[in-house]
């Protein structure tokens, strides 16, 4: 016997409204550009090319960071340091590859230090920085917004110190491939993002860790009494967020084949928080949705694409994005969802003649 779809529950789901919002934005894009959904393969690279692919590709950095931010917000906090960690990751990676920049100004297809170090050290440093955030919150009792503000402020300074205030460039092919190659014609950033989402979903939904996060987010004291090590949960969540910020930083720097300590990861923390909220995770903590967050990130990038299509000045992009996001959040609000659920129940009663 087939299970009936609960329309009322569906309408109350914030993820449902995130999907509806994305469909509506895509429809507007289609009206603006009838060829919006067209796809083709570039002959020189063998890579799929098109607006949908570009949206998924360009949203990769935010989506990866937002996976960690989802857990942070589920704990009832925020992490403002993720954008700075993106800059730190890129700076360290380029430093290892261009250690000899003082002697050889022109970049070449080589890495001075072992390539493995150029990848692993940035990820390790960003993970340690995430643990530092976790320590201040779990052991120091600081509010997450204050604790992470420390690295938000000094993180870019660390990136500048790492590269002596210089912008390194490289032509090292393996590093170039991180963001500019493809697998089965799909751009590599999309593949990396899909793997991150899958691993995160398996970790939080196929183990008890997701339940621990929700329990700590709802009531830390009560979770402690039930035997959950709340401090360890906080440490792990912020370490994961730091690690994912490092991954995002490698993708970002690979796109431009350079470090850019001033602009790398700029406002990424705001976009990541928006993606999580649009995806249906409450800022007060508790239940969360990684799938909803991924959809929220795609919505943000789709809005940017829409703005470009309508020729709106780049200065107005943030305002235009804010207006659309405000509409999505209003649709997800409790009064609106309750109203729509009530209407759905009334229609169901009329259809059955008032008999359940």
Structural class: mainly alpha
Name the strands of the widest sheet in spatial order.
1-2
How far apart lie the N and C ends? Answer: 18 Å
Named CATH architecture: Orthogonal Bundle
Outline the biggest β-sheet.
2 strands, antiparallel
Number of alpha- plus pi-helical segments: 16
Strand-helix topology:
Elements: H1 7-12, H2 14-32, E1 39-41, E2 48-50, H3 51-58, H4 60-74, H5 82-97, H6 115-138, H7 144-162, H8 173-180, E3 182-183, E4 186-187, H9 188-205, H10 209-218, H11 220-225, H12 230-256, H13 268-278, H14 290-309, H15 317-332, H16 334-351
Antiparallel strand pairs: 1-2, 3-4
Helix pairs in contact: 2-14, 3-14, 4-9, 4-12, 4-13, 4-14, 5-6, 5-7, 5-12, 6-7, 6-12, 8-12, 10-12, 13-14, 14-15
Explain this structure to me?
This protein has helices at 7-12, 14-32, 51-58, 60-74, 82-97, 115-138, 144-162, 173-180, 188-205, 209-218, 220-225, 230-256, 268-278, 290-309, 317-332, 334-351, and strands at 39-41, 48-50, 182-183, 186-187. It is mainly alpha-helical. The strands form 2 sheets. The chain has a two-stranded antiparallel ribbon with strand order 1-2. The chain has a two-stranded antiparallel ribbon with strand order 3-4. Strand 1 (39-41) and strand 2 form a beta hairpin. Helix 5 runs antiparallel to helix 6.
């Amino acid at each position: 016997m087939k299970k009936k779809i609960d329309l009322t529950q569906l309408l109350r789901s914030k993820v449902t409204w995130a999907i509806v919002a994305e469909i509506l934005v895509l429809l507007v894009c289609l009206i603006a550009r009838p060829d919006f959904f067209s796809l083709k393969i570039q002959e020189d690279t063998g890579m799929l090319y098109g607006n949908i692919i570009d949206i998924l590709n360009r949203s990769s950095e935010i989506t990866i960071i937002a996976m960690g931010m989802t857990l942070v917000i589920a704990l009832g906090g925020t992490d403002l340091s993720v954008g700075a960690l993106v800059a730190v990751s890129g700076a360290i990676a380029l430093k290892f590859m261009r250690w000899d920049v003082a002697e050889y100004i022109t970049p070449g297809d080589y890495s001075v230090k072992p390539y493995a170090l150029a990848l692993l050290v940035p990820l390790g440093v960003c993970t340690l920085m995430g643990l530092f955030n976790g320590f201040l919150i779990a052991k120091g009792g600081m509010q997450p917004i204050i604790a992470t503000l420390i690295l938000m402020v000094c993180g870019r300074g660390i990136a500048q110190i790492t590269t002596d205030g210089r912008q390194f460039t490289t032509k090292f092919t393996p590093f170039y491939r991180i963001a500019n190659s493809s697998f089965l014609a799909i751009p590599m950033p999309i593949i990396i993002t899909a793997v991150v989402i899958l691993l995160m979903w398996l970790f939080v939904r196929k183990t008890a860790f997701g339940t621990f996060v929700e329990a700590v987010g709802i009531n830390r004291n009560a979770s402690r009494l039930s035997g959950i090590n709340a401090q360890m949960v906080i440490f792990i969540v912020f370490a994961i967020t730091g690690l994912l910020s490092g991954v995002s930083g490698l993708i970002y720097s690979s796109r431009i084949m350079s470090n850019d300590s001033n602009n790398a990861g700029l406002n990424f923390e705001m976009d990541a928080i928006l993606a999580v909220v649009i995806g249906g995770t409450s800022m007060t903590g508790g239940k969360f949705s990684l799938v909803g967050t991924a959809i929220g990130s795609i919505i943000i990038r789709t809005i940017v694409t829409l703005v470009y299509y309508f020729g709106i000045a780049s200065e107005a992009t943030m305002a235009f994005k804010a207006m659309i996001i405000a509409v999505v959040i209003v649709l997800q609000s409790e009064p609106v969802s309750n109203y729509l659920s009530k209407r759905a129940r009334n229609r169901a009663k009329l259809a059955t003649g008032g008999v359940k």
